[in-house]
């Protein structure tokens, strides 16, 4: 072994210490004892080789350098000693040397004293007699260290070996002896064996100081080493170096740093730079084992820390980043683990020397992530240095190079991997301090340092418990963690097997161009939602973690690397003003059709994934928590969502627990679903085969729903033997149709057609609950043509399938349960109409039923039952009206009015007559159900029957009022409508509710056997009125007499239009028998006259023939 190669510097230190102790004659530990019994002339100042020139110390007499010689007695240093050093130290040369070396920066000592001290130290280090001192002081330690015991004696190798193994020395005197000696050498780089020879050229090239004694303060030569260290650090950080330090000097610099790692006194430049800071921050920290270094590192960014000390500490940290052995505590604590997991630097690895610390950290972290055992002391040191890297990115030279040269922040990903803050949030001191209050309140149930703390913080992101500073720090860290799945320790632990099996990943600290870290998570979540039939699924534990990460990433687009990368341009173009939580993704979904292809694909895939598991939308789930707890807790607790939770939220969208944020979020998701049927998971799974077969090339959900609904309706109307749409699809199709009916925006074609009308007629009406649609229906006469047609078509569909009438089903929900549990969906309105006048009917539902009846009576096409019953009668009797009709426009009750007249003439088919009778009975009670009457008599009703029309409950009083005031009606069109009503009432007493109510008992007593319809019961009452033997109820008798007067007036004003009309008037006339008798008498008279005239003419003709 070469003497200088083993750091002979420490041998010299040992020798110096021994000589000093020898001269002092005191105990070694405190510098007051000499361990050797024999005293000899002190060799320290006997001669001055390599001193350059003789100083005042050369004049010191040989006699004074004999036994008992003291530095304090030298004239060159007497003045400085008296001024700077306590008197009790004067008898100890080592104490004097330490006192003068460790003086304050602003205190100068005489040049002559400088040279004396220099020559004293140098001669101490070159005296071979100090080996014998080491043998004496360390006689117990040397046999324990096999390597040192085998060293050849007399060449200075023994002390050098003891210095190298000082960490293993347990003998107190020996350890103190070695430690004390080191302080001498580190005051001047020239005393280190071979250092000056190896670094002479580099010192001059970098202008780190002169090597000639006298040109620079000898005892500040620690600055030279500091200068070289900075040069080494700068070389690592700069890509194009102006000067490259020689390898042998680099090794010498790092070796000096390693040897000074134990005690900060040994790094002279740092010691002088941080002396005051040490007293300020680390006063109670004992020197040794790097404790002072670590203490100063922890206070590096304190405001009170001096800039000079901070710079010196940074240089020291950068050396640690290049060589982990520069950290005494890390090298000691992790020595066994580094050897165990073979983490020692391998020169064959494609990593530069400056990355050594980061490589070793990654190697040990990889072992931890794989579940291997790493000692607690080593993990504690790793935690400290990972935190150190997080606090100051400049300590990672590879990041500094790329950041300064290429400005690539992606290199920061390397720093995050090295520091691995995902495993312990405390590594990121800024995050730890910013989030302390949140952790104490929201995450106090999780032990400190647990990786789940970060997950807990993410779960509370954008909640009331989160503070702004913590939010920013958390997102900064998550930005990088989201780009490398391995940085989430829980995810890595649960999914490393699945990743290796399905995604062909490598070990924790290895990367692959074929499968970079950012792509692994994409691979995992693609397998997370596979069905059993598709195979190759994730394990349950891994799937849970993947879902957790997806839920967290949905909070911010920056946490989804693929989304941010592909959608950067579109985010700037469409969503630059959408900066609130969750708004960016919503904005991209709103502009899905406008996005670039790459962005559209990734947003579409994410939306499709959300449709299956809406809990990915963490902000939405958070907002909807009250509704979920009240109405959807059962589906929310399911491990597999499959779209059930969103369906539940939609169904309970208008519950009292629903808040505005949740309602807006649910509606937004519904609107997004309209863009692509794949975004509705349950619909997609139920109908994908039918869509491919029946609706190919159709993508928008609304178009797919229309396509499939049309197919189902056609198959039903044609009584097809087998439905082309599968049963499971038909069921889900019904769900989708019901959901679409709730909000006009869910039907884009209708919404686009009516946008202007909504703004003009319904500006203050909120979307949802079908309120806008209802508003448009109420203002139907004022709609634009295109909107009017769309609304008419919508009403036509709703009347055919009342379950699609959202408002009706919502308002009458309880009444349907009470009266129509056995009715199917298509006959729901019919059932409600039949029970409309029940005492148990809810008033709001009754009002809604009336509105639907009014709508139905405006056009026969809106009444499916009537349309079916009268399909033959309508074209037969009302063809002229049909010829004028146009699609999408109501006939304003003209066809129904036509059928009413034919009903009075008793010319309708039985089925049609039954339906018209029902309409007549309903409209007789409520004039609003007769569109023709309402259209022509609006003014007369306001003038003559305002009080009756204002009544909340309509019982036929308005029609009765018009009948009574028939003579006062001015408008002929209104008068005609009233006369038609009178005419219709002759045909059936049931269409005259006032008369029917007054004569109900009489009908029961006198006409019970008479079938209703065709005027039969009315004729029965008329006969009873004319029969003096029959006594009718006074009210009935009065009402009948009034009707007779009205009919008489009607006959005068509106004579019979035909023979059938005349026959009807005769049949219902009170003088029917008289009229019929007179008609019969006339016929008989005519017959007799004809008979007589015939005989006379026959006789005359015979007489003429006889002539």
Automatic annotation (TrEMBL):
Subcellular location: Golgi outpost; Membrane
GO MF terms, alphabetically ordered: fibroblast growth factor binding
Transmembrane spans: 1074-1097
Region feature Disordered, mapped onto this chain: 30-59
GO cellular component terms attached to this protein's record: Golgi membrane
Membrane topology: Single-pass type I membrane protein
InterPro entries, sorted: Cys-rich_GLG1_repeat (IPR001893), Cys-rich_GLG1_repeat_euk (IPR017873), GLG1 (IPR039728)
Biased segments, Low complexity type: 49-59
Keyword Transmembrane helix: yes
Signal peptide (residue range): 1-25
Entry keyword set: Glycoprotein, Membrane, Repeat, Sialic acid, Signal, Transmembrane, Transmembrane helix
Cys-rich GLG repeats: 244-304, 465-532, 537-596, 657-716, 724-784, 840-907, 969-1029
Protein name as it appears in the record: Golgi apparatus protein 1
